[in-house]
Amino acid sequence: MQVVTLGPAGTYSHRAAGSIADDGAVSFRESVTGIVAAVADGEFDRGGVPVENSIEGSVDESLDALADRAVSVVQEVVSPIRHALLAQGPEFSTVASHPQALAQCREYLAEHYPDVSQEAVASTARGVERAREDPSVAAIGHPANAGSPGQGAGEDGDGTLQRIAENIQDHDSNATRFLVVAPESERSEAGGKTSIVAYPGANYPGLLLELLESFADRDINLTRIESRPSGRRLGDYCFHVDFEAGLYEARAQEALAEIEEVCADGWVKRLGSYDTTHVVG
Ligand SMILES: O=C(O)C(=O)C[C@]1(C(=O)O)C=C[C@@H](O)C=C1
């Protein structure tokens, strides 16, 4: 199984994707759009993308890529995220990391490093590279990145970067949800959860209520609903909905038939049904 995720080596996505790769071998792209596109284009069997964090919320780029490309979702991976502050020494003037990681440590940085500037980079591991290259830069990332270059997701390191502080996320329960993306042809109806994207292509009072009632009337629990701009015009939205039922279930099929009627002027994309795994580490 060829798996692609957010790189370089040592990202949280790498750790999550490693759990689905047969031999732990994972390839990298520098954007989640690039990962979803690589799976849609048949370059890889599976892609791992972050979609949601318990502190910072949605990874919008992932949601948009899932709506736009011909892919399915075949698994979700939930992982605790425990950030470390990594640097060559205790003195630095910049902290570099993925915007999600910087945001998840917002209170810690404001309290301990109010005068240090923040630099958003493509991934936590890219921030670690910056810190290895430049002693004035610290990184926020997984503590195992204190190892030597290329050892990112492996064992604890050789002291190239010091762990200046650990567990610096603003809430102990910090966790990120990753989705495992597959070619559209591998979409499954089996699983305890389902993700869809609904684009009504219309706008009238009670439209969203109609969508939600399709689930409520059948006792289907929603775990998430997120609106994203369609990109067509201001005020025009797609709805990303996750719910606790498999597409194989009659109640899910009935709800979706009703939603397809509500979205007759738009479209409904069934990303697929899947189960959840938890990856610690
Ligand atoms: O930069 C990384 O290490 C990633 O895997 C990306 C990402 C994200 O986009 O949310 C994944 C988990 C953490 O929430 C922080 C960053």
From TrEMBL:
Pfam families: PDT (PF00800). Pathway: Amino-acid biosynthesis; L-phenylalanine biosynthesis; phenylpyruvate from prephenate: step 1/1. Keywords: Amino-acid biosynthesis, Aromatic amino acid biosynthesis, Lyase, Phenylalanine biosynthesis. Its EC number is 4.2.1.51. The keyword Lyase applies. GO terms for biological process: L-phenylalanine biosynthetic process. The keyword Protein biosynthesis does not apply. GO terms for molecular function: prephenate dehydratase activity. It comes from the Archaea. Residues 196-273 form the ACT domain. Residues 2-183 form the Prephenate dehydratase domain. Residues 139-159 are annotated as: Disordered. Coiled coil: none annotated. PANTHER family: PREPHENATE DEHYDRATASE P PROTEIN, PREPHENATE DEHYDRATASE-RELATED. This is prephenate dehydratase. It comes from Halolamina salina. The lineage of its organism: Archaea, Methanobacteriati, Methanobacteriota, Stenosarchaea group, Halobacteria. The gene is pheA.
